[in-house]
Write a structure and sequence with these properties.
Oligomer: heterodimer
Order of helices and strands of chain B: EHHEHEHEHEEEEEEHH
Number of helices of chain B: 7
CATH class of the largest domain in chain A: Alpha Beta
Strand content of chain B: 25-35%
Helix content of chain B: 10-25%
CATH superfamily of the largest domain in chain A: HUPs
Shape of chain A: globular
Largest sheet of chain B: 8 strands, mixed
Largest interface: A-B, 25 and 22 residues
Distance between the termini of chain A: 22 Å
């Protein structure tokens, strides 16, 4: 089946891509470029997404959105519709882990467009996911921070085998989600097994 | 051993509809309904029929694969499509009724599994009428959300999202 991955360049959407690509053909990536840095739906910033798509050797559909609540969903639907037309996709893959706000809205759009929706990280334990990324040789850096306990020294820090225990320790101390699921930080993938 | 019956059409959906359930259990075996043998059912202490994706309605054409439910005497929990299967085998009617996302439900009758529910996660296009002999334990403003008769219990919502304790309780104390 031809699939599109909703891709932000972050660790979760890249891991979802990795898992989906083992079973299906990934035909393109879809990125929503939101003007709203506080968007609940879409990860910001996405500065490196073109470069990452090139390294993944996948075509990218980049759709601009003002990021206004619910209206941004129309822009997402537009981008998925384009992927159906251009790449004959029959489904969409997301990196949703726990956010029912994001996942239910994407499910509704896929249902309206009569295509499949896949969430291969759904309900996964956050620390287990971080371990899985490291075990599979993914490296990512923190590009935005918004949590007590994560000071500026964490900005641009590469999370790998060495730095992950420190992040987990800090998250326990300051009680934030170590995977950044609640927007505590945003990540950007810098190396993964899918890069060509 | 708890037998998890998989209804998925695509293996990639196993990560979404099976793994969140098996992550909550210790002793389980997962089998796809098309590969299910009589001996698998005999070995099971309990069974969970897991839900599946919105676009997959294959199970509705394959109800004959689930005739064993009528003779199964151990606890059986049907989740979403699993509840629909239980109900349809007991002559309920299928109705178009879509709910996607967080849903408020109202408890209609006290039961150890569904007592403390309020917020649930829904992902379905169909609901069912109440089959004869079953009680309706909960409802949303659109449809019946939980049914029970003897060893059979069905929930239309996905407890593996907001109501993980329901699955843990089914595994331990039912």
């Amino acid at each position: 089946m031809n699939l599109a991955v909703l891709f932000s360049g972050g660790k979760d959407s890249t891991l979802a891509l990795f898992k989906a690509s083992k079973l299906h053909k990934i035909s393109c990536l879809i990125t929503l470029d939101s003007e709203n840095p506080e968007s609940y739906m879409f990860h910001t910033p996405i500065n490196q997404v073109e470069i990452l798509a090139k390294r993944l050797k996948l075509p990218l559909i980049k759709q601009k959105t003002k990021g206004k609540k619910e209206l941004e969903l129309k822009d997402l639907k537009k981008a998925i519709s384009l992927a159906i037309k251009k790449y004959k996709i029959q489904g969409v893959v997301t990196g949703a882990v726990a956010s029912t706000y994001q996942s239910s809205r994407i499910q509704i759009i896929c249902n309206e467009l009569n295509i499949n929706c896949f969430n291969p990280l759904w309900q996964r334990d956050q620390i287990e996911l971080l371990d899985e990324l490291i075990e599979n040789n993914f490296k990512f850096k923190i590009i935005k921070i918004a949590a007590d306990g994560l000071d500026d020294s964490w900005l641009n820090k590469i999370i790998d085998k060495e730095s992950l225990p420190d992040l987990i320790k800090l998250s326990k101390k300051h009680k934030f989600n170590p995977a950044g699921e609640g927007g505590e930080y945003e990540s950007e993938i810098i190396s993964c097994p899918l890069f060509k | 051993m708890i037998l998890i019956i998989n209804l998925n059409k695509y293996k990639l959906h196993d990560l979404e509809f099976i793994k969140p359930i098996t992550d909550l259990l210790d002793n389980y075996k997962v089998i796809h309904y098309k590969k299910l043998k009589e001996s698998d059912i005999k070995k099971a202490d309990k069974i969970i029929i897991a839900g599946t994706s919105l676009k997959n309605n294959d199970y509705l054409k394959d109800l004959k694969n689930f005739k064993w439910i009528k003779d199964f005497k151990e606890p059986l929990l049907g989740i979403c499509s699993g509840m629909q299967i239980i109900a349809l085998l007991h002559k309920a009617k299928l109705k178009k009724s879509k709910e996607i996302g967080q849903t408020q439900i109202e408890i209609l009758k006290k039961d150890s599994l569904t007592n403390n529910l309020n917020k649930v996660y829904s992902l379905h296009q169909f609901s069912v009428t109440l089959p004869k002999g079953f009680v309706s334990l909960a409802k949303s403003n659109k449809c019946i959300q939980a049914i029970k008769k003897d060893n059979l219990i069905g929930v239309l919502f996905h407890p593996e999202v907001f109501n993980k304790d329901l699955i843990k309780e089914f595994a331990k104390n039912i």
